Amino acid sequence: MNYNIRGENIEVTPALRDYVEKKVGKLERYFDTTPVADVNVKLSVINSQQAIEVTIPMPQLLLRGEESHSDMYAAIDKVIEKLERQIRKHKTKVNRKFRQEGSLKYMFKNELEPLEGEPQEVESDDELEVVRTKRFNLKPMDAEEAILQMDMLGHNFFVFSNAEGGDTSVVYRRKDGKYGLIEPEA
After folding, report:
1. Using an 8 Å Cβ cutoff, are 65 and 82 in contact?
2. Distance from C-alpha of 181 to C-alpha of 69, rounded to nearest angstrom
3. Are the beta carbons of 28 and 34 closer than 8 angstroms?
4. Cβ contacts of residue 179 below 8 Å, gap of 6+?
5. Which of 64, 67, 68, 135 could make an S-S bridge to 78, C-beta 3.0–4.6 Å?
6. How far apart are the first and last CA of the chain?
């Protein structure tokens, strides 16, 4: 794995870099072969909170975790635990559906033991049950109008037809209180 570690309002010391590489490197044990991936790590300090954001894009899987804590090393430990849970989830839930050669099933080792304190997952078919379906017409609008509609409805996201290109887009409220826009690639 190739590491891209950068700091925002914090200096990435060699000790901090080594700790991140050591912890993220432990994720390799969950794969049959070492994944060829770029590991993007962003360390930041906002007020008194130390935050870490880790993104590992792979061909058929995107691992992403974000955590904050008053201690940077504790935040790193927490985000690694989150990434391990994501790997376990993909291994146990998603891969049950895809049994053919080349699927994610063959990316992971089979002997995954549960983490301490993590509840055992009971396999059942109703875990991913859709309990409600909504249908509505997508009104063409710009992102600003979609944000206003979202706020008026009190939702955290809003799906709309982008007036500029006609594509379906999504606006959402981020944890920092700002807004994000998701658009399809051209």
Report:
1. yes
2. 27
3. yes
4. 143, 147, 171, 172, 173
5. 67
6. 29
Place of tokens 């901090």: 16
Closest of 3, 53, 63, 74 to residue 30, by C-alpha: 63
Token duo for residue 125: 């078919």
At residue 77's C-alpha, the angle toward residues 32 and 92, to 5°, is 40
Q: How many angstroms separate the Cα of 1 from the Cα of each of 40, 54, 186?
A: 10, 13, 29
Report the Cα 88 to chain-centroid distance in Å.
14
pLDDT tens, residue by residue, 64-91: 889 999 999 999 999 999 988 888 877 7
Does the reported pTM lie above 0.70?
Answer: no
**What are the residues whose beta carbons fall under 8 Å from the beta carbon of 141, sequence distance 6 or more?**
149, 160, 161, 162, 163
Only one residue has tokens 């979609």, namely 146
The answer to whether 75 touches 52, Cβ cutoff 8 Å, is: yes
